[in-house]
Every structure is written in C-alpha cells, then in structure tokens.
Amino acid sequence: MGSPIIGSLRIALYLAWTLALVPPQLVAMAVGSPLARRIPQLYHRGCARLLGFRLEVHGTMATEAPVLFVCNHSSYLDITVLGALLNASFIAKSEVAGWPLFGFLSKLQRTVFVERRARSDVGRQRDALTARLQEGDNLILFPEGTSSDGNRTLPFKSALFTVAWQSVDGRPVLVQPVSVTATKLDGIPLGINFRPIYAWYGDMDLAPHLWRAFTIGKVTVEVEFHPPVTVEGFPSRKALADHCQTVVAAGVERAITGRRPPVPAPAAPATRTATEPAAA
C-alpha cells in the first residue's frame, strides 16, 4: 500500500525540516528563550503536513495556561498530531529518552520523563511536573501507560493525576480531556481492520510501520477537546482519572462511529411585536 516515491520524498523532506529546526531550538533552550516553547509546535505542524494528516478539531481548546491535557494514545503519530495543535510539552516514560532519533527529538520538545514502574517515586515526579506547570508550561499526559489499537480506550492509570491537586498561582490546575482518533484514509472510513495504518501497539515493528506512515495517502485524525475540569468535585485522583477516561472513550467512539451531535442551527430572529415600529 502506498507509493515508494512519495515515501522517499516525504522522508527526505522530513529530515531536511528536522535539520533546519534543530539548531534554533538548541539555541532557544540554551538561552531560555520563549521560542523554545514555540518552535516544537511549528516543527510538528510541518511534520503533520509532510505526513499528509488532515486534522479535524471538535470542541474548544483550553487556552489559559497552565493546562494538563489528558489524552488517549494509540500511536507515536499522536505526538505529531497533538504537537501541531498544542503549545505544550509531553510526559513520557523514561525509556523514550534513549530511543534513537526520537529520544533526541523528545528532549528538544522539553519532554518530562517519568518512571512508569509501580514502585517509582510518585512524589518526586509530582514535584517535577508541578515545577513545569509553575513555569507556565502546558503538559500532555497519556495515562493509559501504553498505546492501544485505536479502536478502544484503555483504563487510565491514576498515579500522575496527583499533580492536579497542586495549585499554580493560587489556582487549581486545569485538566482537559482530549480524544485522538484516526478515522479516514483518503476520505474513506478506516474501519477496525485498517486503523493499525495509524495505530502502533503491542509488538509491532517500528520501521515498517513508520515507512507505511510516510507512503500512505491522507489520513484524517479527529481531535476532540472536552470541557476542562479541576479537582473540585472529585474526591480522589482515581475519580478524576475515571472521569477523564469516560469522556475520552466516548469521544473516540463518536469519532469511530461518526455519530456526532448535530451542530445547533443559528437562532431565528425574534418576531417583531406589535409595539415595535415597522422598518422604514
């Protein structure tokens, strides 16, 4: 499936685009420039174009930083999709830091690396995340802890939700659930069997999947921003995690089935009453 010529061209452009933006990002990070937050988003927008992604956005993105965006996860391609839309840094498992190329790029993204093991120091990681939020950084969390097949949303692990109980400038952290779903290839619904064109999970080999991502046509990815919440009204981090999982899973299901509520029609003009003067 796909064209080797298109794939080779996309890879060449991807490498050129990457090499062009690495030096300015290194400089921006070294001098503490605000551009260190902006360049990664510019980079991912370029990558999304090169990969032929068509992004459909539903809902309203929270813009009052800092925000903890809580998202489902089915592929490394989610990084490009969310990175193109959000001025934010990712939270990733520590192993990612050692991956060839992608580990280096994740460091340039100013990713926060955490241990996913059950006995890891949750308090230390909470403090590291809180420090980034205190600096005004938005963060992106994948609480499933692994990637799914794209057809379902796995249970959310609650450990890192503890950061939502910290205050930033006297305000509780804003938590916004986000659903990310690949739905179409060249305008045709993917269906269950073809969603692995985008999804990468289990023991799938990275290189063949990455090559396919560069060679296929235009993939439509739907991103739904759900109403943001704070810890108020949630008795525990598990309750907050369960709420986010429920709304994210519902968003994924809506995207897969195409059963979105209709957009309300514009309100009809009010009927002129007898006391109102007629137009001249």
UniProtKB/TrEMBL annotation:
Keyword annotations: Acyltransferase, Lipid biosynthesis, Lipid metabolism, Transferase
Matches recorded under SUPFAM superfamilies: Glycerol-3-phosphate (1)-acyltransferase (SSF69593)
Domain Phospholipid/glycerol acyltransferase: 67-183
Region feature (Disordered): 258-280
Low complexity bias locations: 268-280
Molecular-function annotations in GO: acyltransferase activity
Pathway stated in the Swiss-Prot or TrEMBL entry: Lipid metabolism
InterPro entries reported in the protein's UniProt record: Plipid/glycerol_acylTrfase (IPR002123)
PANTHER family: 1-ACYL-SN-GLYCEROL-3-PHOSPHATE ACYLTRANSFERASE (PTHR10434), 1-ACYL-SN-GLYCEROL-3-PHOSPHATE ACYLTRANSFERASE-RELATED (PTHR10434:SF64)
Name of the protein: 1-acyl-sn-glycerol-3-phosphate acyltransferase
